[in-house]
């Protein structure tokens, strides 16, 4: 259902919400009212593709994007890991990829094969949205 242009448009909406101070709390009760107008904007922008989009589906997709960003940050906090803005690919040593796989499992290896296009936008959107008591280095 989600294509890259849908994701980028959603990330841009989230970026605007962050700039307005609306993403400072990631509790569902706080975020869902922020997401309600985004559902309307996404449906208007992509009427054929996102006609069945609901608030709950959008919130679930946001959680998936946040999880991807956390996996990306885990790798980027390793020595020598780099992100290529042009390709979205992450390069790291074999040792770092083995540690990543041990820590996150085989299903998280998508990062090595497809990277994270627009990771810079993810950084802006999710900056500061760590749950209390957690750190990026976990």
Please write the string of helix (H) and strand (E) elements. Answer: HHHEEHHH
- Helical percent range? 55-70%
Largest sheet: spatial strand order: 1-2
Task: Please summarize the sheet with the most strands.
Answer: 2 strands, antiparallel
DSSP E strands, number: 2
Q: Helical segment tally?
A: 6
Using only CA atoms, what is the Rg? Answer: 16 Å
Low-confidence stretches: 129-138
| Shape type | elongated
How far apart are the first and last residues' alpha carbons, in Å?
A: 31 Å
Q: Briefly note the structural class of the backbone.
A: mainly alpha
Q: Average pLDDT, to the nearest integer? A: 89
Report the portion of residues in β strands. under 5%
Summarize the structure.
The protein is built from six helices and two strands. A hairpin with a 6-residue loop joins strand 1 and strand 2.
What does this 3D model show about the protein?
By secondary structure, the chain is mainly alpha-helical. 58% of the residues lie in helices and 3% in strands. The protein contains 6 helices and 2 strands. It has helices at 4-19, 28-45, 55-76, 94-104, 110-114, 119-126, and strands at residues 82-83, 90-91. It has a two-stranded antiparallel sheet. Strand 1 (82-83) and strand 2 form a beta hairpin. Helix 1 packs parallel to helix 6. It is elongated.
Chain-wise SSE layout:
Layout: H1 4-19, H2 28-45, H3 55-76, E1 82-83, E2 90-91, H4 94-104, H5 110-114, H6 119-126
Antiparallel strand pairs: 1-2
Helix pairs in contact: 1-6, 2-3, 3-6
Which keywords apply here?
single chain, 138 residues, mainly alpha, two-stranded antiparallel sheet, 6 helices, 3% strand, elongated, disordered C terminus
């Amino acid at each position: 259902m989600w294509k890259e242009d849908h994701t980028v448009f959603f990330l841009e909406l989230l970026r605007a919400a962050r700039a307005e101070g609306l993403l400072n709390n990631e509790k569902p009760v706080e975020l869902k009212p922020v997401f309600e107008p985004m559902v309307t904007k996404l449906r208007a922008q992509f009427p054929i593709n996102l006609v069945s989009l609901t608030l709950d589906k959008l919130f679930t997709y946001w959680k998936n994007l946040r999880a991807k960003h956390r996996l990306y940050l885990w790798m980027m906090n390793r020595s020598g890991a780099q992100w290529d803005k042009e390709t979205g690919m992450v390069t790291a040593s074999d040792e770092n990829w083995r540690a990543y796989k041990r820590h996150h499992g085989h299903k998280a290896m998508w990062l090595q094969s497809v990277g994270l296009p627009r990771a810079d936008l993810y950084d802006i959107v999710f900056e500061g949205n760590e749950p209390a008591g957690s750190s990026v280095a976990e």
